[in-house]
Amino acid sequence: MEVSVIGSSQVKTELAYRELGFCNLKGGKAVISSKNRVCVGRSTGWRKSGIRFTLRATAAIQSEQLRSDSVSGRSTRSKSRDNVRLFVGLPLDTISDCNAVNHARAIAAGLKALKLLGVEGVELPVWWGIVEKEAMGKYEWSGYLALAEMVQNAGLKLHVSLCFHASKQHKLSLPEWVSRIGESEPSIFFTDRAGRQYKECLSLAVDDLPVLDGKTPVQVYREFCESFKSSFSSFMGSTITGISMGLGPDGELRYPSHQRLVKSNKITGPGEFQCYDKNMLSILKHHAEATGNPLWGLGGPHDASTYNESPNSNNFFRDHGGSWESPYADFFLSWYSNQLISHGERLLSLASSTFSETAITVYGKVPLMHSWYKTRSHPSELTAGYYNTTTRDGYEAVTEMFASNSCKLMLPGMDLSDEHQPHESLSSPELLLAQIRTACRKHGVEVSGQNSSATGAPGGFEQIKKNLVGDNVVDLFSYQRMGAYFFSPEHFPSFTKFVRSLNQSELHSDDLPEEKEEAADSLRVSSDSVVCMQEA
C-alpha cells in the first residue's frame, strides 16, 4: 500500500507545519505563532474554536521548488504495488448559501499543507440546495467553479460528492422551490409510524412520480448531473477524478431510520421503519395484493420498537421468538429492502450513463449500521433497509447492483473498532465491515473508505491503517473532514504521523540533495499573516 509522498517525510512534515503556522516543534508538539493575527471567514462552518494557523507564502514557494527538484532528480527507494489514494474532505459549508467560497484564505492554506504532506486530493460536497436554490433548472455553479480552480492550482485532485439531501445540523437546506412543494404536498418526504416527516431528502417512493412541478425527481437529478458535467468539463478527468452520487440521508443508500435519536450517552436504539408516506403505503398495498395477502399491505410491523427503545422492548426484533422470523416479516422486509435497492439502481444507473464518456469514476455510499449487529435480527440494519440477519445476507443484492452499474462502493466507519463500542449495544463495526467487503469481493466491486468520527474515534488512526493493509484492498480513502479541529495542534500532528505511516515510498534524509536539505532547514518567513479558523 502506498501514499505517494515524494521527498523527505520529515522535511515535508515540517514544511506543512510551517504552512499552517506551527512555527516549531517542541518535544514533538506543534507550537503556534502568535504574531500578526488576522481573523477572516466568520461563517457558520468554523465558528467558536479560534484555531490559528499561518499562511506562509515563502515556505510554499520554496517547498514547491524542493518538491519539483526531488521529483525530477531523485527516485524513491521502493514502491508498494498497492496504492491507496488519500483524500481529505473539505468543510460541508465550503460554499456559502450565496455561492461564495467560505473562509477562502484558510482553505487555500490548508490545500497547500495537504499537498506538502502528499495527500492526493480533497473531497468537495456539492449541495443541490445551493446550486439549484431558487428555481428548477436555474443552476449557479460560480462558487464551486472557483473552488475547483483553487484545488487545481494547488496541484490536488478533486472528488465531488453530489448531495441531494439537506443537513439541518449544518443549516444546509433542500432547494427553496422543493421545500415549497413539500409544504403543500408533504407526502414527497419519508414518514414514520407517528406521521412525522423527514424533510432532509425526498422519499424514494416518488423517484418516478412527477411531483416536482411536472417532473420526476430522477429527471431533476439527471438534469443536475448533466449541468454539472457541462459546467466542469474543463476539470473532468484531470482535476476531478471521481463523483459520489447522493443516494439518501447523508448521501447514503438507506432510509432515515435513525432520524430522532436522542443526543445523549444512551445506547443507540434500532430506529424505525420509514414506510408511512402515502406513496410508500400505496406501493406496499399493491405488492401485498399481488402476492395474495392484502392485509399485509396496511403498514409496517405493529410490534417493532421505537427509535430509542431497546430492540427487546417489543416483540418484533426479539432474538428468540421475535416476529421478524415470521412469513409476514419476510414479506415486509424483502419488499422494504428491495425498494431501497431499486432506488439505488435508478440513481447509480443515472450517474453511470451521465458520466460514461468522461474519465470519471462513479461511487455510491453504503452505511455501516453496526449497532445491534451481534443480535440475531440486526434491527438497525433492518430499519435502514438492509435485510441482513444471522440467517440471511442482506448485502449480496446491494453489491450486485453496484457491480451491474460499474460503480465503486464507499464505506464509512473504517476508524471504528469493536473494543471501543458500548458493550450494551452489541455492536460490531469490524464484523459488519468484513461482511460487506466479502460481498464486494464476490461481485468484483472495488471498495473505498471513510472515517465516521469528525473528532477522532478512540484508536481511529490505527484502525484505519488496519483496514487499509493486507487483503483489505481499498481504492481510495477520504478522511473526514477539514476544519478548525483538523488543523489544530491536538489533531494535525497526529494526522501527519498517520500519513507518514502509510507511506511506503518516502525518501530517507540521505536521498535528498544536500543543498535541498539545507534549503528546507533554513526556511524562514519575514512576515506572517494568520487566519483564524472558526468551527461550528
TrEMBL record:
Q: Which InterPro entries match?
A: GH, Glyco_hydro_14
> Which BP terms does GO give this entry?
polysaccharide catabolic process
Which reaction does this enzyme catalyse, per its entry? Hydrolysis of (1->4)-alpha-D-glucosidic linkages in polysaccharides so as to remove successive maltose units from the non-reducing ends of the chains
**Which keywords belong to this entry?**
Carbohydrate metabolism, Glycosidase, Hydrolase, Polysaccharide degradation
- Which Pfam families is this protein grouped with? Glyco_hydro_14
Region feature Disordered, mapped onto this chain: 509-528
Q: What is its EC number?
A: 3.2.1.2
The GO terms describing molecular function are: beta-amylase activity
Where, by residue number, does the polypeptide cross the bilayer?
none
State the superkingdom: Eukaryota
Q: What family does this chain come from, according to its entry?
A: Belongs to the glycosyl hydrolase 14 family.
Q: What is this protein called?
A: Beta-amylase
> What organism, scientifically named, is this protein from?
Quercus rubra
